[in-house]
Amino acid sequence: MPFEDELGEAMRRTGDTFRPSDRPGLVDGGMTRGRRRLARRRAVAVTGSVLALATVGVAGGYATGSLGPDDGKASAAAPATPTAPESVAAGNVTEEQMIETFKGLLPEGRTTREEGSGTTEAPERPDGPKGPLQGPHVSLVFDDGGGAAAISLGVSVVDPAGKSAADAVTCPSQAFVQHYACTEETLSDGSRYMLFQGYEYPDRREDTKLWRATLITSEGVMVDASEWNAPAQRGVEVSRPAPPLTAAQMKALVTDQAWRTIGAQLGEPLKESPEPGQSAGAPVNKVLASLLPADLKIVDQQGDPGYGFVVADDGRGASFIQVNAQTGMQDVFTGDATTLPDGTKVMVKKENNPDDKGGSGAVGWTVDTLRPDGFRVVMMAFNAPGQGQDASRAEPVLTIEQMRAIVLDEKWRAAAGRPATEAAGPLTSRPSSAPPPRS
């Protein structure tokens, strides 16, 4: 779910879907929190290489904007080599070794603006054991005769069983990050690999293309490479139709043994703990799908306990629907609400350009509910297939009455890790009491 100059901008691009000033009842602890959790991982982890590499400890060029125009340093890249140089295998990888190893794996061409860092000590942790070494990175501008292009690569370690690892090699939904290709696969040795092919800015404010290859081994070594069709990540004119390395060359680059050798020297990755406040409940998208009218076609969905979305189509255009289900929300619900006989508060909103992302003709409808015990369910439905996208239909696929019936269903307690006050059917079936689709 969605999220401009460096790390902060990337996070805002994926996180700031709702206005903080005019939607206090919805934003404060509501949909934004859950949407940011999922969208920041799924979208920024792919498109925002600054953020994704920063979160796993890769510093330098990615986080400081060092990818830029030619600074006068130049050399010829050597033909690809299949194994790590002896100096790399010996440990304590330096910036120079990292650059030479990287260049040795590139096709023939000219390189400039060669920058990077070697392995460094992890910072002290006041609340736990010292982490693994900080992984090295390298960045340069490469020209094979077809135009100068920025290419970067970092090596780090990550808990292979954690959510961060899974999200790093999971293709993002088109609802949040529009792209033209993305593939995932598990290699024969158990490593997970993803190749994303899209744009530096999913809204296409610049024409810069971004291709990103990510590998995570079963031991937790993460190799993350990005390339652009411009001599810098952003802010410069594109120099070629596509980034220089083909899909096959990107895969060969990140799967080379050299990076595994380096990654093995960084130490054991820290085990990943659940995010603060993360629920052990059912994924929200599964609960939502079970409550939608039966003749709606679900074309996309993702979710975690607490937050999820589906993209549904009734044959007249796709509609993006997102839901948060949270407990302990007694003090954050404000606004002009109707109170039901059982004490549940219900607030309804209809507005244009609901996510402030400027999708042409976009409207959004919100139904926000708060039970007396602090259990809150809030749903928002768009007349567009995703965040910031142009309208695909006149109105959302659900009516306000349908949305109201869905968010008041007791099945939502399962999504927040709370027992239902009334028996609910299996989450895999849509109840016969669900409201009919719009005519």
TrEMBL record:
It comes from the Bacteria. The keyword Transmembrane helix applies. Residues 9-22, 110-128 have a biased composition (Basic and acidic residues). Keywords: Membrane, Transmembrane, Transmembrane helix. Residues 74-90, 417-432 have a biased composition (Low complexity). It comes from Streptomyces peucetius. This is Uncharacterized protein. The keyword Transmembrane helix applies. Residues 1-34, 70-138, 417-439 are annotated as: Disordered. The chain crosses the membrane at residues 43-63.
